[in-house]
Amino acid sequence: MIKKEEVQHIAELTRLGATRKEEEKFQKDISSILDYFNSLKKVDTSTVEPTFHPAKYFLKKGSGEAREDKVKSQSMEEINKLSAAFPKKEKGYLKVKSILQ
After folding, report:
1. Residue 18, in any domain of the structure
2. Residue 22: domain span
3. How far apart (Å, rounded) are the C-alpha atoms in residues 36 and 55?
């Protein structure tokens, strides 16, 4: 079973304000999900053909070259609206909380 400290760490990273009762529920739920994935590891899929491969979708056919990035222009009104909705700004940049320690 996943440790309570791990649930608290996940809750902190995802900024969930979890109560002790919710932490216990999350502990059971996450453990159940992880147990399910561990049971899937036991299934023999060696003869199953993949149905999707990201390289085929994101790379141009046969070239091994990544698709071209396309810039989507936005009006200053849209940019200002998004910027105004942001809670913190510093030196002209939008500031976010660090999630890495």
Report:
1. yes
2. 4-41
3. 28
